[in-house]
TrEMBL record:
First-listed, main subcellular location of the protein, grouped into a coarse class: membrane
Keyword line: Cell outer membrane, Membrane, Signal, Transmembrane, Transmembrane beta strand, Transport
Origin superkingdom: Bacteria
Protein name as annotated: TolC family protein
Family: Belongs to the outer membrane factor (OMF) (TC 1.B.17) family.
Short name of one Pfam family: OEP
UniProt-listed PANTHER family: OUTER MEMBRANE PROTEIN TOLC, SLR1270 PROTEIN
Amino acid sequence: MKSIIYIILILTAGATQAQTLEEYQQMAAENNPGLKATHKAFEAALEQVSQASGLQDPNLTVSAFGQMIETRVGPQKARFSLSQMFPWFGTLKAQGHVAALMAESKYQAFLDERNRLYYQVAAAYYPLYELNAFKTIEAENIRLLESYKAIATAKFSSGSGTMVDVLRVDIMLQSANTRLTILDKEEASLKTTFNNLLNRDIGEDIVVIDSLAVDDALNAGDLLPTTHPRIAELELKIEGSQAAEHAARKQGLPKLGVGVDYIIVGERTDLAAGAAPPADNGKDAIMPMVSVSLPVFRKKYRAAVKEAQLTQESYAFQKQATVNALATDYEVTRFELAQQRELIGLYEAQAVQTDRMMQLLFTAYSNSEADFEEVLATQQQLLQYRKMKVEAAAAYQAALAKLYYVTAKVY
């Protein structure tokens, strides 16, 4: 199982610079300390399997007689006792099964944390796309406003325009330059958030795509969630609690012990002159032993069984709550996708129509047939539609990333 996880984590080993969102997500999976912590928790849980299914240590007792006990075959000098207790048949297997199920639940928690990290990376990536697009739009807006200012100045110089037109475009240029400056400053905070997810220097450059595609693949509803690591984790915990109940009942049964005593016996030296030594004179003694524990204090065993039963109920309620939450997130996110897709189409159409209006108004203004204020207002409206389209596209992709997380779809 460990090897499977390492394969998951190291899919892009040797890559020097990520250029796509998927590559950034893999980089985060390899480097993010939170995900590494979850993986280490799973590895630690695996180690508990051997602990839970292992026997207790044997007991060795060494006794030396201060005053030797005389026996028929000689004095007892020392005693060595070795014993081992064994739980009731199947108890160790049951305990190991509990630990294995809980370790598997940790693995599902790791998968969920990885998927959540993928979503977090996407949620931090698309604001960078939005910011870069805004900067491009704003720079284009400044270029157009500067050209409008040149035309307004030329018309004022020729007497066919007013200084008000020049001042009005100057004000709009100041606003545009200020917005661009704010965007430049905002970029640092967005890069910090993104690079921290990848656990790398906050000043690292980030390659962001310059366009986003919107598809209709989700209309068929084929991504309805059927399983999720969070649900699988709770199902394993329920199964583990059932196994814990069985193990608790086993622990309430007697424990069997076996052992052996080895007694060092010295030779008799108190025999009368000429008396024959007894048979086995000075022969060491070996004494096998069998013991049984008596679990007569039942309260703690009943409490352990009850604890496992209540834990099962708790996990069952958590599972139902998780299923409900995921179902809600699924429906809300699908609505968000549909909404943003409609808005993208709306803003695209409005931008196209406004651009046509802009061209007509500018031509009319060049011929002194239109008010310059109307030209500028239409230009700003076009700017707004283009920005709203970018916002909707970024929101669509962020919602899509969330849907991938809700449905446990792997990138």
